[in-house]
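writing this on my phone so excuse typos. first protein, seq and then structure
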Amino acid sequence: MRKILLFAAALLTVTTANAKVWRINYDDNAKADFLTITDACTAAKVADTDTLYCEPCLHNGAAAANVISRNGMTVLGPGWGYEPNYGNTSTIPEACFANTIQITTNNVKVEGIKCNSAIYVTGLHNIVINRCNVASISTNARALENFTISNSIIKGVINGAVIYFSGDYSSTKLHNVYITNNIIHNLYNYSDSRPCISVESYLRSCTYNLNILHNTIIGLAYKSDGGGVISVTNALIQDNIIINTANQTFVMDFNNAGNVIRKNVFSLNAENVNAVISEAYSDNYYVGATIANTFTCKENAKYRTEEYYLLRDDSHAKNAAYDGGDCGAFGGVSPYVICGRPQGIPYIYDVEVPAQPTDNKLRVSFKVKSQNE
């Protein structure tokens, strides 16, 4: 009963008129419409604007089984971590993909899924990745525009940048990119600089309207010549928490061209800020932020890593944002929602259904919590 209600809540986010919803489940016993995303995308009965609902299970197919090739398609999952015993191997409360998910077309939305590998984008425009739990996101496309990554946790468990924009050398633009309200952390222990967000150098001269807003970004970057935790140009970088756990004084290259950097909480200490940074980027918080003095680091967040990054009451990020709210993923107009739950919809965490009716009525009761409870 609980899962049915949660599925219904998730589908409220799908508003395409006349579109159909198809069930995807890698388990033959589930009797779903299709075993894999690729099966659905290549089926004649599936329309471009349809929704593929990936049911809670371990989607074990090879990477070739996870190719989104239909223009205008929505791929939807239930989020993760609904069950109170989350982490128990007998329960999989999420649509978990073991291999890479590829987006090869345009006007695609991926929402509410978990991917232990990368989401790899070669589509050109109108791509949305929202409420996902993924290892990394990378692109390799000409003229990528209107690309949004929001309300997701991107874990960086591989050797390389967590969000990485590249293309071929004939690329003409990287336009209208929004990276908002995400938890991005790269703690891969490697003796080199590994930025969390990076744009390939040859794309930087044609990057416009890149927005990095209200993210919690935790990096492990050893060398200053590798770009630090963020290595971008021509970007608005605002209301983020940016911490380098390997080199506290180097969080990003402040000399990169065209960046507007304001109201961010940095691991960089005020006494280590040089004159150039203090004059050009004085509207930031150089407070020596660490994981310990910024976040609650809740012990019960072992399987829900995002809860680890809830703000302490005395955090420097509290009420520090441009709009007067909190910096980081849990601030702004669209705060990060724990466990990939649908935004703006309270979630049902307990349901009681009696075995017999009373007075010819079946009295069903359920308990509801708000988004981040």
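second protein below, same order as before
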Amino acid sequence: MDAMQTPFDRHAVRLHRDRAAATTDDVADILRDAADRLLDRLDDTTRTFTRALDVGGRGIITPLLRDRGIETFATDLSPAMAARSGALAVAADEEFLPFAPGRFDLIVANLSLHWVNDLPGALIQLRMALEPDGMFLASLPALGTLAELRTALTEAELALTGGASPRVSPFPDLRDCASLLQRAGFALPVADAEDITLAYANPLALLRDLRAAGETNAVALRSRRPPPRALLPMALGELPAHEGRHPITLRLAMLTGWSPAPSQPQPARRGSATVNLNDVFRDD
């Protein structure tokens, strides 16, 4: 497969998450905010869950699910990160999941699928690991996330070298996320956005937070050469500022889908309508 088919360096992703296992607590408040927003969707259903899979939750999701009385199993690409869950856990590649069909009634993937090369394939495997009428919840950084940093880095590198290497991951458009769920066979797919704005007095703290979370550059086409020495100072100096702080956007796509089951609402059969449109639009 070429770089267009494998946009991410999965080896680098694992190394970044291995390293971040020791520093994730530094960004726990941000991860917890995203997790709470995602798990709020559990309160919108009357379904009772008993066996959950936490995919890449960085030690944040599993305790929250256990607090809800849900037995939870965890997995992560990084063995060190998987161990942070404090639960039964296994290190596994999201693109080659080892779970039996119908093993779980809930799967939660919080900020963990955006470095996957074959996202439709991973979603299919996750759907197959759900029992009928099982629920899938995921959050993904969507288009607009880190837009301020992406623009500043690109413009600074163009000014310095006349070209630009990809330094921020590409993110999906929100409109594409529900269709991804549908393509993977999920029923009742929903994608909506949650915006989190972080404000940094020192923009270097943004880079430290990305590193602490294991979110440094793993784009396959990234430059392996050291960046120009002036790049980061120039780019960070160009970040927008408001009242002495630099606002940074995290735009999260919150995905909800269900494993198909006969009991779920079904679309009406074409031609089965019983209302005459002439009656609906009758002129008085």
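The longest strand covers residues 187-200. thats all i got for now
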